[in-house]
Amino acid sequence: MLLHSWLIAVALCLAAGGTTALPPQLSLAALALIGVIALIHSRPRATTTAALFALIVLLAQVPLLGTWPLPGLVALIPFVALGHRLPAWVGTGWLRRGRLDPVTVGLVLGLALVAGAALLAWTLLANPDLEPIRKTYLTDAPWWATLLAGFGFSLVNAAVEEALFRGVLFDTLGGLLGHPPAALVGQAIAFGLLHLHGFPSGGTGVALAAVYGLATGLLRQRSGGLLAPFLAHVLTDMVIVAILLGVA
After folding, report:
1. Phi and psi for 126 in degrees, rounded to 5?
2. Do 1 and 41 meet the contact criterion of CB atoms below 8 Å apart?
3. Which residues of 167-198 are buried (b: 16+ CB within 10 A; e: fewer)?
4. What is the DSSP letter of 169?
5. Which residues contact 110 (CB under 8 A, 6 or more apart)?
6. Nearest to residue 48, comparing CAs of 65, 56, 166?
7. What is this structure's pTM?
8. Element (H, E) at 10
9. Category of 19 on φ-ψ map: left (φ > 0), alpha (ψ -120 to 50) or beta
């Protein structure tokens, strides 16, 4: 039974991370298979987590919802609503604020500073083509309006990604494995894979995002909730906005 749990956990991490990296048909097939196997082996949380990421893949095919993080946001709404009614299948134990003591605030600011420096270094060294991202997310509005929109994006993106990876997936892996360090590493790997075509991108981007997922996962463990990693994520995303605007 333990072997089944580990195999389900590994497959779930790879499939969750592949929601934006793999062809949608392949992602859906993999997530459906994982969900069925988890159900057969009485792992309901793994089944509903697979269903959540499958819904994200489906929503990403809808023209008005195809831009990240909208698919994740829309998928999370019914998932959270069901969590209060079906605690054994969904649950909302991951939806905790946690504490923000002075040390945690210092860690949040430190992580944002290091991550921002890493993003700037990656941009300078890799010299990626940022035009596709700019065309998707930036408008011809005045710079202050674009900056305000970027802040709004940072809030939503951070909330969605922290809920999915440091929240739902982290808790599901913890329940499957009963081993917090493995759950920590698993969600970080999935988060890294999510950024294969994101910012940062490519193999280096996957590695950088995985390390960042590990750091924010540790923040979640230390603080006991999602607020600390969310705040660090917002600050880091604002660095990306500044880079895209050409002011960093």
Report:
1. -85, -25
2. yes
3. bbbbbbbbbbbeeeebbbbbbbbbbbbbbbeb
4. I
5. none
6. 56
7. 0.95
8. helix 2-17
9. alpha
Residue 36 CA neighbour count, 13 Å, CB half:
6
Angle at 11 between CA 7 and CA 12, to 5 degrees: 115
d(CA 194, CA 119): 16
CB-based contact 189:210 (threshold 8 Å) = yes
Q: Report the candidate in 234, 29, 2 with the shortest Cα–Cα distance to residue 14.
A: 29
Q: pLDDT tens, position by position, for the chain (248 residues)? A: 588 899 999 999 999 999 988 899 999 999 999 999 999 999 999 999 999 999 999 999 999 898 999 999 999 999 999 988 888 888 888 999 999 999 999 999 999 999 999 999 999 999 999 998 988 888 777 878 888 999 999 999 999 999 999 999 999 999 999 888 999 999 999 999 999 999 999 999 999 999 999 999 999 999 999 999 999 999 999 999 999 988 64
Please list the helix, strand and coil fractions of the chain in percent, rounded to the nearest 5, in that order.
Answer: 75, 0, 25
Interatomic CA distance for residues 95 and 80, integer angstroms = 9
Q: State the sign of the Cα–Cα–Cα–Cα dihedral 180, 234, 105, 211.
A: positive
